[in-house]
Design a protein that fits this description.
By secondary structure, the protein is an alpha/beta fold. The protein contains 16 helices and 14 strands. Strands 7-12-13-11-10-9-8 form a 7-stranded mixed beta sheet, with helices on both faces. A 5-stranded parallel beta sheet has the order 2-3-4-1-5, sandwiched between helices. Strand 8 and strand 9 form a beta hairpin. Helix 6 packs across helix 13 and helix 10 packs across helix 13.
């Protein structure tokens, strides 16, 4: 078996297996090319690929006339790119209500379907799961010597060693976590994100909801968003950041494009965390601008690994997006969510890793180096003191997540320093 034929197990597999035991249908959503179909096929006994014109035409007719053969086949049945026939949702929901079956259907989609107020929520019958591009642990490029699981279980002392220099981190960032790119040689792998962006602005941005959009304007908006990545820039700033010759006529136009990017799982903003504090400090509630994969931002900016090495400020912002991608994959696998924290006193934490059981940890994301690590640790310790421990749990850990540092270790103040190439779920 050649390298390109190797399937690398994904963290989402355990979530799919568990959800199929308790729900009639599992929906796997995420950016195109992130591996949804390949992973879903591991669980399916029948596969319907609606992206094939002949198959789409056949099943669209069955859906239009309500033919019982629409849902025929050995179960579980996978409907790939199901959003092309949104009516499938209600047919499947009705089938589950009637049969009370578990794990009968799998839906995959690289775009959210057109909104329909009459569409049933599917609560209790249909479970949605987001699939992300590959984390470094999934692509076998992290040693996994430090795990979020162990940190949440109370591990205080960490150790590990990553083999990446900063130049290699820049390459991994620009390559992204696209499964096909992970197994390709460097020259080809770096083209994946570029090809993704070209497909996005030339076709997907219109196909997502059949609203015709200008590719030149789409590129300008994507680039402006990338220039503000890992910041809490308001939409007015992003609009001003678009070149004058590509000016957006009004905020509604900008919203239309950004909503389309969100439906396509291109942008993936990180929401603000609102904890209980000892003081009455006001918390900022603006989301942090992020992409589902950092390589999209790099491609939108036409940034190569060499460009990032020559512009460490931009590198740092894109690296935060890189780290957030991995943290989200690891945290969601543990049953949780990643937030950001900013208050009006100027205190920030790039990532709050919050589990459903109330446990939480905080991380500052830095390229590395003693000065930046110390700054990050100081901010985390200040945040921990602000939390009202009588009303919510104390942090399970405080972590500075780095790019360039070689070793994982625990500082005397208790803050753990972890290179991204040592982390796993």
């Amino acid at each position: 078996m050649g390298k390109k034929d190797i399937y690398m197990p994904r963290l989402i597999e355990s979530s799919i297996a568990e959800s199929m035991k308790t729900n009639g249908c599992v929906v796997i959503e995420g950016a195109k090319w992130c591996g949804k179909s390949t992973t879903a096929e591991l669980f399916a006994k029948s596969v319907v690929k609606l992206q094939k014109p002949a198959t789409f035409k056949q099943y669209k007719l069955l859906a239009d006339i309500g033919d019982a053969n629409l849902l025929s086949g050995e179960k579980p049945i996978l409907f790939d790119e199901w959003q092309k026939i949104p009516e499938l949702w209600d047919y499947i929901r009705a089938e589950i209500d009637e049969t009370q079956g578990r794990g009968s259907f799998i839906l995959t989609g690289s775009a959210k379907p057109v909104e329909d107020k009459e569409r049933h929520s599917g609560t209790g019958r249909i479970k949605k799961i987001v699939m992300r591009t590959m984390s470094l642990w999934e692509s076998r490029e992290s040693t996994g010597e430090v795990s979020l699981k162990s940190l949440f279980k109370g591990q205080k002392k960490v150790s590990g060693k990553q083999g990446f220099k900063l130049k290699e981190i820049a390459r991994l960032l620009c390559r992204g976590g696209w499964p096909a790119a992970v197994t390709e040689e460097t020259r080809l792998s770096l083209k994946r994100a570029i090809d993704y962006v070209e497909s996005l602005i030339s076709a997907d941005i219109t196909n997502v909801d059949e609203i015709k959009r200008n590719p030149t304007r789409a590129r300008a908006i994507l680039k402006a968003y990338a220039r503000n990545v890992s910041t809490s820039a308001p939409m007015t700033v992003i609009q001003k950041d678009i070149e004058a010759n590509h000016a957006v006529a009004d905020p509604k136009t900008l919203d239309s494009y950004l909503n389309a990017f969100a439906k396509l799982f291109v942008i993936d903003d990180t929401e603000a965390w609102c904890p209980r504090l000892r003081s009455k400090t006001a918390i900022r509630t603006t989301s942090t601008r992020h992409f589902s994969d950092p390589s999209i931002a790099a491609a939108a900016l036409n940034a190569t690994p060499g460009d990032l090495m020559n512009d460490l400020n931009t590198f740092g912002l894109l690296f935060e997006n890189f780290a957030i991608r991995d943290l989200k994959a690891y945290t969601e696998n543990r049953g949780g969510q990643v937030f950001n924290y900013r208050d009006k006193d100027g205190l920030e934490a790039d990532a709050i890793i919050h589990l459903n059981n109330g446990q939480w940890g905080a991380a500052e994301i830095k390229l590395g180096g003693e000065t930046l690590i110390s700054e990050g640790a100081k901010a985390l310790l200040t945040l921990a003191k602000k939390i009202d421990a009588d009303k919510m749990k104390a942090p399970s850990f405080l972590m500075v997540l780095t790019a360039v540092d070689e070793f994982a270790y625990t500082r005397p103040d208790g803050v753990v320093v972890v290179p991204i190439g040592c982390l796993k779920n």
